[in-house]
Amino acid sequence: MKNKLTAESPMNDRRYPWRIYPALLRLAGIIAGAMLAAAGLELFLMPHGIVVGGVTGLSALFALSTEMRLGLFLFLLNLPLLLLARKNIDASFALFTVCGLLVFSLGTIVLHPYPALMGDPLLAALTGGLSLGLGLGLALRFGGALDTAEKAVEGFRSRTRKGLSPEGMMLLLNCFILLAAGFHFGFEQAVYSVTAYILAYESVKIPLFGLKINVMVQIESRECAEIQKALALYLNRRAAHIMDARDGDFHQVLRYQCHRWETPRLKAIVKNCDPDSEISIRP
Question: Where are the membrane-spanning stretches (predicted)?
Answer without folding.
Answer: 20-41, 61-84, 91-111, 123-143, 164-187
